Amino acid sequence: MSTDSTTDDATRDPAPGRIHFRHGMAIRFTEHESRMVVRGETIDLTPEMIELSRDRHGVSHFTLLDDQSEQVRKWGKVIYARGECPPDIFWWNSPGNTADRKYARDLEMQEAELIRDPVLKYERVKAIKEKFGRFVTNHIESY
Fold this sequence. Notes:
With 143 residues, this protein is α+β, with helices and mostly antiparallel strands.
């Protein structure tokens, strides 16, 4: 038996409970169901999910759930954390992810275009611009 408590802590299974994701990853929910979870998603982590996530060494990829500094050391970022997802974390707003941000904005702008009332449409477009901010556009110089 190891006397090094950090080794024991590093391989200890987390307690089941509510967790949220700050980055997407593939999860096995049951023996027959797996899927990608996205940034901003909250799920209930079950003992079955912990068991199904074990690698060839028997270590669950949820082992670091309660150690965010170790997640940063190992992966360079916090992947998941306990509790409900904070209200300012969405699938489209991870740092540096301009493609998803633009896609989410475009989806909302398409919905706004369907609004017939010009005042309501103006208010919706204004709210979308406030929500997503300005985008840098590419400037092509002509020769």
